[in-house]
Structure formats: C-alpha cells, structure tokens
Design a protein that fits this description.
Bound molecules: D-mannonic acid
Number of domains: 2
CATH class of the largest domain: Alpha Beta
Largest sheet: 5 strands, parallel
Distance between the termini: 51 Å
Number of helices: 19
Helix content: 40-55%
Number of strands: 12
CATH topology of the largest domain: Rossmann fold
Structural class: alpha/beta
Shape: globular
Length: about 475
C-alpha cells in the first residue's frame, strides 16, 4: 500500500514529493474530494509545497456525505496517509506518474462536524475551496438568488450550530472566526460555472443573510470569492482501471487517479488571507477571467455535453469513440465554428480556432477512456450552465438556429432515459424532483419543454421553435442520432 513510510522505496519511474510530506500542515480546507479536485487543485498545491516556506499550505479534505463509497474513500485516504498517485497520459500515449503529498487529512462532515467547524474557525485556515458540481450552489438560475427553500438549507437555518450543508458549515465557521476576532478566509470555487466566485458569493452571503444580516455584512467585508476558470479532463476510475493504473505504475494505490496531460487554471488574484505562490507553478492570474471562463465552458463543456448526450443515446460509452464518428465530429465542430465562436469574445492571446483544435485532440485521447455517463450526469444543471449564453445569442440573432434547436432536442431525449436500443440509461439527475423526472421520462413533448431547465431561454422559444424541437425529437427516435444530425 502507498504510505508515507514506503515513499522512499517506490519504483524509479514514479516521481515522489521533493518536500518533506510529514512537515506539511493544512492551510486549505477543501469540500468535495473528487477526482477532478485531486488532479487539479491537488496537482497545483503539490507543486507549490515544493517551494520554500510553503509547508503551511497542505489540504484537509472534507466529505459532505457518509456511508457506502464515501466511507471507503475516507478509509483509503487515511490508510495511505493522504497519498495518492496521478497518472497523466497525453493524446500521444506518453505517461507521467507522480505521487501527491498535498492531501494532509480527510474529515467526513456528517460524523465529525465539530472537527470540521473547528478547522474552519482555526486561524491556520486561509482558503476554503470546493468542487460541489454545477448544480451544487443552490442558485435559482432564473432569479440568480440563493434558494433558502431547500429542506436541508431550512434545517441548517434552524440549527446553525449543527450544519449539514456546505453553506451551513462555512458560514458557521466564519461566525466563529468573527466572534473570536479573527479575519475571514478566501472561498475558492473550483467548479465549472460562469463567474464561479460571484456565484459562490451569492450562495454563501445569501445563506448568511437568511440567518443573520450582520454576519452577512461581515462576510462581504472579510471574505473574498475569486472567479476562476479550471480545466483538466479527469475521468472516473473503475475498479478495472485501478488495476491497470497500478500495473502501469508498479504501485499498490487504493485510489489511483488518471488525467490528461493538459491543465489550466486562470484566476483572479483576490485572496483575503494570503495564498501559495501559485503563479510559480503554472497558474495564470488575470483580471479578465470571465473571457477564459466563457471560452472554456461554452466550447469544452458544452461540446462535451453534446457528445455525451449523443453517446448515451447511441449506447457508446466513451467520449473518444463518440467523436470518432465523422458525422458527430463534424456536428460538434460546426456548433463551435458557427454557433459559439462568432458569439464569443476571445480571451487575451487566445486564438479560438486553435483552442477548438486542441479541444478536439483532447477529446480524442483514447487513454482517458472518459465516460459519457460521467459527463451526462446532472445534464439539466449542465445544459443551463454551459449552453445558456450560446442558446440565447443564437435565438436572439438572425443566425440559423438549427443546430441549437437540435441540441435542445438531444438533451430532452437524453433525459427521457432510454437509449436507441431501448435500454434504460440509469441517469443521475440529483436536482430534478420526482414529478419533474416523470415528465422528463414521459412522452409529452410539450410538458418536457416546460421543465425549469429550459427557463433560461424560455422567452425565446416561439411556438415554431418548440415545434422544431419536437420534430427533432421524433426524428432522433425514428432514425437515431447519427441519421438525424443536421449536418
Ligand atoms: C465535463 C467536465 O462533467 C463535465 O461536464 O465536461 O468534467 C470536464 O471534463 C472538465 O470541465 C474539464 O476541465
């Protein structure tokens, strides 16, 4: 097993931390210790820990769930002294393997809530970061406000000292800091949202305001919420893939991780309580983050969702295999060329055509074996976050709306939950109510267009456009995805 003690005797091809892992303490608390976090923030922090004077910037991970896989993950992290291996594989097949020492502790919030709160209130904690998914910020996409009506939020508001949600934990931690005369920290979202810092501010301050207006004001003054664009394709690792990764590395890692070799993080330099020298390890600081966010979300994530919806319907499991179909390749490229790029402002120094070509190469990286099911999960939140600006720009202009209307039909067919072969897909839609799920699975085309997921462009859906979406749905069902693609 991978442990601190065994670090010195690992296979030569595996890079190990050049810093003394044992001396590292936590300055960052991260909620949502998934694969993306471990391959992205974990990667940058691991590099930063090798810089002089950085031993206070380790990470304590916090899991918000307990039971089943959450428990076994927690046990694995603790058994391995927080160490894990990352295998990066380029589209060319070239691999690079390293052991990361950045994760210094792991807490499960449901069973150790006091420990989590004490850590948040500790002055050593300077950054609280999170990967809680696009839908996890509990923002009403139409009003842009935090939804206090959610039952778990209501419970936290009624018992703020025994929180269950991330909002409850972070705000109670901040209350304790304020009462102890300490300063705030930086709340750093690492999720794929447009303006993820601004959205986090809305969420955390919105929750605090519902609890205590003066605390909300203190948070506004003492906590910063930098916006950031995060990027690295990080597939899920099946048990079989774990065996393969360990075979390749020669390690016996309980939680081996795989990612592409590409990585990017563009962030605003707004840190309330200091930060590692991230600029020395490849992070780009910029005051024009939103241009990068828009390009990444509207090109990468939006295309990913198209490929995944198509793949799920076709019964093709992997992104590179979906893209290998020339018609789908052509369609995704046409959406980027004709619907996205013309309505997008290029980030400084970025050529969007070049960016598109790089994306297509990244998507075609077969070694990732990136699962369409991973990307299709929570498609209703993702479609809103990744597609809204493109859908609105096209439907508001006199450009041809064909491809966009087809994409809307595609996502509705995905939500129906049945592949072209008639098989149930087992979709994960954590934010749909049982009634909404019933509508999504059903055959009433009009009712499904009325789902709240379509609210962000509802005003632009004329009866003709709705009829076009329905027509495409019928066509997809009759002829299948490939034959019905408008290319
Ligand atoms: C994917 C992302 O889940 C998704 O929707 O598009 O996880 C994607 O792999 C990352 O954003 C890449 O940076």
């Amino acid at each position: 097993m991978l442990t601190y003690k065994g670090l010195k005797t690992l296979p030569a091809a595996v890079a190990v931390p050049s810093y003394e892992v044992k001396n590292v303490t936590s300055g960052i608390v991260h909620f949502g210790v998934g694969n993306f976090f471990r391959a992205h923030l974990g990667y940058y922090v691991d590099r930063a820990l090798a810089l002089p004077g950085h031993e206070g910037w380790g990470i304590t991970g916090v899991g918000l769930r307990s039971g089943g896989r959450s428990d076994s993950k927690a046990q694995d992290f603790l058994a391995q002294d927080g160490l894990y291996s990352l295998t990066e594989i380029a589209a060319s097949g070239e691999a690079n393997i390293r052991v990361m020492g950045c994760l210094r502790d792991y807490l499960q919030a449901p069973s150790e809530p006091e420990k989590v709160l004490a850590l948040l209130a500790d002055k050593a904690t300077k950054i609280v970061s999170m990967t809680i998914t696009e839908g996890g910020y509990n923002i009403d996409e139409t009003t842009g406000e935090f939804r206090t009506s959610l039952p778990a939020v209501q419970e936290d508001l009624a018992n703020p000292q025994q929180p269950q949600t991330i909002f409850g934990f972070v705000v109670e931690g901040l209350r304790r800091r304020r009462d102890a005369g300490l300063g705030g920290f930086t709340v750093m979202s690492c999720d794929n949202l447009r303006h993820n810092g601004d959205v986090s501010r809305k969420a955390f301050v919105g929750y605090a305001r519902a609890l205590d207006a003066s605390l909300a004001e203190w948070i506004e003054q003492n906590v910063t919420f930098p916006n950031a664009m995060v990027d690295r394709i990080t597939p899920s690792v099946s048990d079989e893939a774990k065996v393969q990764l360990n075979k390749r590395s020669g390690l016996d890692d309980l939680q081996p991780l795989l990612s592409e070799d590409f990585i990017q993080w563009v962030m605003e330099d707004k840190f309330a309580a200091g930060r590692p020298a991230f600029e020395k390890v490849g992070v780009q600081f910029s005051d024009q983050v939103s241009a990068y966010e828009h390009a990444k979300i509207r090109m990468l994530n939006a295309s990913h969702l198209i490929l995944s919806a198509a793949g799920m319907l076709q019964g093709i499991a992997l992104v590179d295999q979906v893209l290998a179909q020339p018609k789908l390749h052509k369609f995704v490229e046409a959406v980027m060329d004709q619907d996205v790029i013309p309505t997008l402002k290029a980030p400084p120094g970025v050529d969007l055509q070049e960016y598109k070509r790089t994306l297509l190469t990244r998507f075609s990286n077969a070694a990732m074996a990136d699962q369409v099911a991973r990307i299709a999960a929570d498609a209703t939140s993702k479609a809103q976050v990744f597609w809204t600006e493109t859908v609105r720009s096209i439907l508001q202009s006199d450009r041809d709306p064909t491809r966009i209307l087809y994409c809307l039909a595609l996502v509705l067919e995905l939500l129906r939950g049945k592949s072209e072969q008639g098989e149930a897909m087992g979709l994960e839609e954590p934010f749909l109510t049982p009634e909404q799920l019933k509508v999504a699975h059903g055959d009433d085309f009009k009712a499904s267009i009325a789902l709240p997921a379509f609210d962000s462009w509802r005003d632009l859906l004329t009866p003709e456009r709705e009829a076009e979406i329905v027509r495409y749905r019928e066509l997809i069902r009759k002829e299948g995805v490939l034959a019905s693609l408008p290319v």
